[in-house]
Each structure stands twice: as structure tokens, then as C-alpha cells.
Write the C-alpha cells for this entry.
Amino acid sequence: MRERLAKHDRWLARANKLRSVRRLAPSLALLAVGMAAAAPAPAGAAEPRLDVPHGKLVRALHCQADVRQAKHEPVLLVTGTGIDGSASWPPSLQPVLSADGHPSCYLDFPQHTTGDMQTAAEYVVFGIRRMAALRRR
């Protein structure tokens, strides 16, 4: 019983920490949309070509070192409008996810995600593809 209570207390501590980042809800909604868009294509379907230069995409994606060997699915963190991923995720949600065994990556979008949404979508597509490649999936 004690072990069960201790587990419950740990869960509550994590939940309280997550409540402190409620302001991230719009970003998480965008992440969910990105994940839905990443549904597997039919066999034989070609991946869409990205117009954003590859170097810019690589520089915008920041992954924790343990993404490759993660026991659980890694998480792609996507910011909302007006903020960079580097200002939003490392000090708040990344440590919580890591403590729960989910390493993560985040994106820094051009113009603080206030530019063309089609361009921002290409960054998300690249992030999903790159994380899948890191995990060899």
C-alpha cells in the first residue's frame, strides 16, 4: 500500500508541475495537429518535397541526446506564435518529459512562428522525419 501511495504522490508532483505550464496549451494543440498530419502514408506514396533549405531545417531542430536510445516515444515540442522553442521548452516541459522517460526535440521557427504557416509546417514535417530517422522507424 505504501508503494502505491508513493507512486501516487510522484504522479501528483508531476501533474502539479505540468499545471504550471498551462500557458503551453496552444503549443500542444499545434503539436497534436502536427502529429495527426504525420500519419503514415499509403505504401509506395512519395514523401512531399520541402522547399525550406535543408541547413535551415537542421539548425532549427534541437534534440536531447537520449532521443536515439529512448525507451518511450520521443516528443516533438512545437511553440505557439511569438516565441522560440529555446525560450519555451528547455526550462519548462523538457525536464518533466525527461524525468518521465520521454526525451524530446523542439523547433525554433523563423520569425518566432509569426511568418508563413506553410513554411512552419515544413519545419514540423522535417522534425517528425528527423526524429523517426534518429529512432530508425
In short: Residues 24-40+49-134 form one domain. Residues 2-19 form the longest helix (18 residues). The chain has six helices and three strands. The beta strands are 61-63, 75-77, 104-107.
